[in-house]
Amino acid sequence: MAVGGLASAPVPPSLAPVLPAAIPTPPPAGPLLAWYDRHRRTLPWRAGPATGAMPGEPDPYRIWLSEVMLQQTTVAAVGPRYARFLARFPDVQALAEAPWEDVAAEWAGLGYYARARNLHAAAKAVAGRGGFPDTEAGLRELPGIGAYTAAAIAAIAFGRPTVPVDGNVERVVARLLAIREPLPGARRLIAPIAARFMEQAEPRARPGDFVQALFDLGATLCTPRRPACALCPWRGDCEAQRQGIQESLPAKTPKAARKQRHGLHFLARDPAGRLLLRHRPPEGLLGGMLEIPGAPWREAPWSLEEALPHAPLPGLAWALRPGLAHHGFTHMDLDMRLAEASAPAGPAPPGMGWMEPAVALAALPTAIRRLLPLADPPLAEGPEPMASRPSGARGARKKGIRA
DNA sequence: AAGCCGGGGTG
DNA sequence: CACCCAGGCTT
Questions:
Q1: Is A57 a catalytic residue?
Q2: Which domain holds residue A123?
Q3: pLDDT tens-digit map of A6-52
Q4: Å: A165 CA to C8 C1'
Q5: Is A244 found in the same domain as A277?
Q6: pTM, 2 dp
Q7: What is the CATH number of the domain that holds A185?
Q8: Residues with CB under 7 A from strand B
Q9: Can you tell me which family this protein belongs to (predicted)?
Q10: How many Å apart are CA A299 and CA A260, to the nearest integer?
């Protein structure tokens, strides 16, 4: 196909630098689709008889939920949480009508909590308009749906001929055409190339399968490290493999170093054994999630005396527990200490509440849960190991605790 | 374009 | 340890 109307007339060499460069052509999609038909992964949100989980036509609600959960989150981590979420909120109406507290509790531990807030807001919008938009542009209007997710839902749930560009597709395309420019800048080269796949008849006939075939290729063969090129349906078409540089692609610009921060949190228990907790501000880090009250996270460590003005109740006998809870965020390393006190029966301070441990602990984000083993007696083992990895053979040492 | 936003799997 | 993951939003 002509790109920028340049295909028909030869371009004089002297003018070439001034004119837009032609978009490189990706390889034929046939081999990838044939490979997908043999080797595709069985996933809970994928239609077909293989799972029985989603018979018949794709359900936009289920596709949407899977795409949002999978944003920067591995398939292994999403699996059990997806089933649980779906059991609790079976359709978009149920999610729209649920209180935020229930949605937050169900999302706790999954991270990127803006996803849960946007999911809830989008459910209300969809329920209000009587169903999901069935075009990429319409989907793009919903909160939490960006360029990638809109294209993914449009292709998988509605059969639109569009190619969502995620980390897998970036890697696959960068290798196929040996694109050496580092990400994220290289995206402006990769996206138009990926889009050209839909010029071919086979992807256009089954867009949902084709884009998921790209995902599966990136997840199982064209992996970030040690790609299995010998098994790749495109092994004869890959320029990076031909040059032997596949393991160094895609290149990435280095990221900034993580900052170090310190916190000190105050855990009060009333005579009934309930815990004094509060909600974090609705935006920002862990926005809208439950936490143990404390002094703000800052550059320098806190002493108990210094942090005391941030204690939720005045006049209690706070005891600083030994040890340090550690949590690594994407852009910050956090060390937290824990002080505890017994409180007399009485109302909670404004913005806080006394909560039963069994209810509260499950709704805490992982960073805050790391404080629990410091309590005396310990309130929990901290974050549970993942259900998909039952025996936890390695890593007998628990994360998040420092002497 | 760059920074913010979680948490876990993996080599 | 470092790197990555079916990214979105804000500045």
A1: no
A2: 29-248
A3: 333 333 443 344 456 799 999 999 999 999 999 999 999 996 544 44
A4: 14
A5: no
A6: 0.88
A7: 1.10.340.30
A8: A 72-74, 76-77, 109-114, 184-185, 188, 225-226, 253, 255-256, 284-287, 327-332, 365-367, 383, 385-386, 388-389, 399
A9: Belongs to the Nth/MutY family.
A10: 6
